[in-house]
Specification:
This protein has helices spanning about 20-40, 55-60, 115-125, 185, and strands at about 15-20, 45-50, 65-80, 85-90, 100-110, 130-140, 150-155, 160, 180. Strands 4-3-2-5-6-7 form a 6-stranded mixed beta sheet. A 3-stranded antiparallel beta sheet has the order 1-9-8. The protein is α/β, with parallel strands linked by helices and about 190 residues long. Strand 3 and strand 4 (about 85-90) form a beta hairpin. It starts with 13 loop residues before the first strand and ends with a helix. The structure holds 1-O-pyrophosphono-5-O-phosphono-alpha-D-ribofuranose (PRP). 1-O-pyrophosphono-5-O-phosphono-alpha-D-ribofuranose binds near residues 113 and 114.
Amino acid sequence: MITKTVSDSMHKDIEAIMFTKQEISQLTNEIAARINKDFEGEEIIAVIILKGSIMFAADLIRCLTMNVKLDFMQASSYGSGTASSGVINIKKDMDSDIKGKNVLIIEDIIDSGRTLSLLKQELQSRGAKTVSIAALLSKPERRVVEVEVEYIGAEIPDKFVVGYGLDFDEKYRQLDYVGILKPEAYM
Ligand code: PRP
């Protein structure tokens, strides 16, 4: 018997698939291989940025070979212009003391760069030994603030993408692929 899932009804809102489940898995493996090489024999604290990164984070950490501790944050940026004039709004903070630790921020997407730039500065100011970022996707055309992202899965054009954690109005996160949303679904 074929059971219809909730996500079946969401497929009709998708214009095109950008990354299939298999392609995401490939990108994740490539990122993990680099992290495993860079932090071989060390411990890292993986900071999962809620909510969009949960799927990527869950898959990525399963490919990591060093000791990994998990923590969670929820943050956004407000203010305009450059990183120095922006303010980070930490809605949920992590529990860990990161002083002297290797921190790996896990994000689903980097867009303007404001959130990650401020977050990186914030975690560096807490005395972390290293703060690196792993983001599955990046939209370089949208960048307003330069931020060094050590591990990027793929650079994508400025399209409205959803799925695999990414939402529109909290919807579509549960899709197991990344797809381009039809304009009529959000306009
Ligand atoms: C998204 C994404 C990043 C941020 C990137 O989160 O997960 O945190 O936006 O944008 P920026 O580069 O322009 O700062 P969002 O605020 O949509 O929250 P969510 O993860 O809960 O969906």
